[in-house]
Specification:
The chain has one helix spanning about 5-20; strands at about 30-35, 40-45, 55-65, 70-80, 80-90, 100-110. Strand 1 and strand 2 form a beta hairpin. It has 1 helix and 6 strands. The longest helix is centred in the N-terminal third of the chain and has 16 residues, at about 5-20.
């Protein structure tokens, strides 16, 4: 097995065990998090490899004091050799309006 495939497999195992995205050197990474005052969801990404990607981050946003979820859907181009930076911001209805992000995942395909 190639070293890069072994590293990717370990990364996928870690993602499955921790429920969180784990950046893997040489591959793209993206994730979503609430900002400090829970008024917005911030999507960030990075790419330590040379290949350019088109990425998508999806998930559900639990809105404070509501049973319904808001949809998280962020699509962006991720150039090669990009340090971690913000790509999308989805605002709620002010400070404390968002409770959590559930089931977020990212997909990137070379372009």
């Amino acid at each position: 097995m190639h070293k890069s495939l072994a590293i990717a497999a370990i990364g996928l195992i870690l993602v499955g065990l921790t429920g969180a995205s784990v950046p893997i050197p040489g591959y793209p990474w993206a994730g979503a998090a609430l900002n400090a005052d829970k008024s917005a969801v911030i999507v960030t990404g990075s790419n330590t490899g040379d290949t350019n990607y088109t990425c998508m981050v999806t998930g559900r946003i639990r809105v404070t004091e509501q049973r319904a979820f808001a949809k998280l859907d962020c699509r962006f181009n991720l150039p090669g050799n990009t340090a971690e930076r913000q790509f999308c911001e989805q605002s709620g209805n002010g400070p404390g309006s968002l409770a959590s992000i559930e089931g977020d995942k990212f997909t990137c395909v070379p372009n």
